[in-house]
Amino acid sequence: MIRTAKMVQLSAVVLEKYFDRVTRELLSLGQMDFISVKEVSPSLARSLRDVREAVSSAEIKDLRKKVESIMAAGRIEYPSLKHVDIKPLTEDDFRRMSDEAAALETEMTGLRRRQQDMQTDVLHLEEIQKQVSAALRHKSPGHDNPYAAFLVARYGTFDGNAEELLQGLRGFSCALMPVSETTLNEYVLIHLKRDSLKIETVLSQTVWKGSEPIVGEAAVTPELKDRLEKQIEKTRARQNELKYDLESTVGNEKQRVKDLWIALRVGETYCAIQQRFNKTEKTFVFSGWIAEKMKKKVSDAIYKSCDGDCYIEIATAAEAVEEEGLVPPVLLETPRFLKPFETIITNFSVPAYGTINPSYIVALTFMLMFGLMFGDVGHGAVVFLAGLIGTIVARKKRKADYIYNLMCYCGMSAIFFGVMFGSYFGYSWLPAVWFNYHGAVEGHNATGMVQSLMQILALSTWLGVAIISMGILFFFYNCICCRKWFDLITDKSGLAGAVFYWTGVACAYFFMTEGSFARIPSWILLLGFGLPVTAFFVRLVVHSIHENGGFKITALPMLIMELLIEVLEVFSGFLSNTLSFLRVAGLGIAHVSLMQAFFMLADMVGTETVAASVGSWALVIFGNVLVIALEGLSAFIQTIRLHYYEFFNKFLMGGGIAFRPIGLVDKGND
Amino acid sequence: MGRVSEYSFISANLRAKISRILDAEFLLKCAEAKDLETLLMTFKDTDFAFLQEVYHKTADIKTCEKEVLDNEIAYNSYLFKHTKGAVRRFCESLALRYEADILKDVLRLWFDRTVRHRNIDEYTPYLHREPIVHTLPIDPILNADSPEAVAELLSSTPYGKVVASVLREAADTETMYGVETAIDAYVFRQMKESAEKLPLLDRRIAKEYTGLLVDIENLNRIVRLKHYFQFDSAAIRARLLPGGRRLPIREDVLPDGFEENVGDLVKRVFPNGSGDNVGETTTHFDRLLFVETISSELKAKQAQKALGGNPFTVGIVIAFFILKRIEIRRIITLMNAKYYRLEKERIKELL
What we know:
Order of helices and strands of chain B: HHHHHHHHHHHHHHHH
Helix content of chain B: 55-70%
Low-confidence stretches of chain A: none
Strand content of chain A: 5-15%
Number of strands of chain B: 0
Helix content of chain A: 55-70%
Largest sheet of chain A: 6 strands, antiparallel
Number of helices of chain B: 16
Oligomer: heterodimer
Number of domains of chain B: 3
């Protein structure tokens, strides 16, 4: 748990007749990150053949994506893959599924065509509406109205099927509407003057009997505009109905579509596993990484599925690294509830195999830093609630929820520190348990161990020293785990760096409290700075020998220069890293000060009248909202920054390869 | 300090937007999608996620296309809002390209209606009608009956003078090429003029970009005029735009009787491997595709150069314009290719 999980390499040879049973077991366990046997043992490669599936995984994937697009059209959520029947996809199955998907697609295509026609109708009506509106806007007595001149209105009767007439007019921007709701066969047709000839041709082919066309302003009336708007609304409503028709057409087949998707997803993953197998004359060979704690379960399952008739070899990670030059993947066994903090780490870099898994510590330090910057019960509760709602919504939509989980943790931390500081939406409704942050910032009513701004700054500096020291200690641990003894002693985060840093901290402490560091014995200063500098120099010399194939005296001046730069870099690095933690105080002070500023503004507005009272409360509420949004975001970003630059840089040996076992994933579109 | 304060906000914003622009690798992967609906699904975590909903509601590829273009044009107002003075004027001149494209579309439709007597109602609803830099009288133009009437309608915009002399000729000769090139020439002139008014560092970057655009436009004209209209070199030279960086209008660049293949011309004028990965250009379509590919390649290089330089210059605006335009073109190509069920390999070529 403290380190990345121990991995083992499991290799197995199974008889052909057990091929499917083993695949099924491995798929249901979902614990193996496969390795290409051909790559691991090039000598074996010649005698190994690839496995040919009945249906290729690429074909299955294509069909699955097609089914997913049908699911999206029918607003169907992805089903869970827990407790599904695991079986391979035969050619017949695949053909049947392709036909099922094609049948659904055909049904959809018909509706899509109608939707498209409806969209054309809407667009044509909107074109006419635009012209009518423009004509009415530019209407001015005694003046030419250019926009009205583009329009023609025709009144007439039509005894045939209106749908047929509409079909004939479909290619034109026009609107055919009943003259009134009571008359059945009297219509008004509005179209663009430029289409007159073509429309007359269409009308002449029908039983339309109309009066002379009305051109220009006379054709345009506000009533016509209203009726046109209603017509557009009606057409849009029909367009929406078609959308719902499509959704319900697919929705009615919900279970069938879900079953299709499950079978395809399972079949695809099944194929993905079998692709990792290699074939000899009568056997199948595969190899992969599994967590050490799972080795019994996985090997038992393989034995069981082969009725004990198989060969399994398990090599430790060290053996696999030494003998086959493999790099073990990294599995961070962080409990589920702390996964959001693991994501923060892996976003920075996946820790190297066998090094520390800092998830637990990061959970603590993350909440500690955020709480110190944003400690307020009310603000924390809002952040917590927002995170909770986000989590629920994201889970419902099957989307990543770790950012919302983090908000929940941050909210809880802010609530805890709010109680410690006695801050409730900026008010001190209850006394502080630890110290009164508002009082310390304001310089009066301060209670508890911290009573001034300087003490807040000192507190955050000490927090920085503690975090950096912890980072250094983790680096020791990582070096011991990876047996990097030279780095442990000479690295800037190793013993040399630690002695250098802690001596510097002692000097700074005495200088700040007593004005000088005369109380520190000179031999301690000499050793505290001298030994690390010597170690840095040794490191540079060893590197130089390593790079140049031997030590050359002529390289000495350059090495001394490098040493000077190195010492300067280590000194400035530690100094800036430590001072960087002043932002914890800075953000905390800004949080309090902003609230105070809004309270002062609210006081200035006063409470003499009802309006003033409302205004004053509105200001307080606005202030709280602003502080939650701005300060919350800012504290969150600064907390991440402090971890990435000041903490992880000290110890996190990145570059690990994440453990990716093949199993069933109930998500789509990857 | 002035430069930093002028560009800090827009630079940070545009860089954030640029980071969300879909790269060629992602779009090539999208080309693997089986059909249009599967393609739209692959956009679900991108800025184009809205397309799935638009298609779901309308099933109309042209409406989707219009939404994408409207979105692209909306970035212009964003840039106008966050820039001022000479930089804003330069941004406006860059936006003139969108406006010119719309005007050309409108004039083509007018031409189709009046000269070719076609029904244009199928296309007019998809026109972008919101003003970009100038207010174009789109509907009056579409309904106008003569070239003179169109010129009169455009007289309140700078395009009035530009088209007045060439529109009648276009109607008489039944080709709009002259009108289109006249509008392009006006836009390039505006870009060059506004680039001249920028501060020194910005001016250098802007002129380099406008020079490249002129080169690409001239290359396009050479291909069209030589291979489609069968013009001789002197006639082609007379129709090229001045101000190119690498393709000056000189006899040594385009000698009389020149018979050079477009690929060889490109390699001669734009060295550094431009167009190396483009195949044979024997048909007119291939040649145009070649120029299009080269144009995207050169512009992308220009954008990368601008992004790698001083962040507080007009370079970031140029880079954004280039990359966004390339992205939008690719998205539209992809959507249409999937709608018309083109082969995956053909789509990849087009991208």
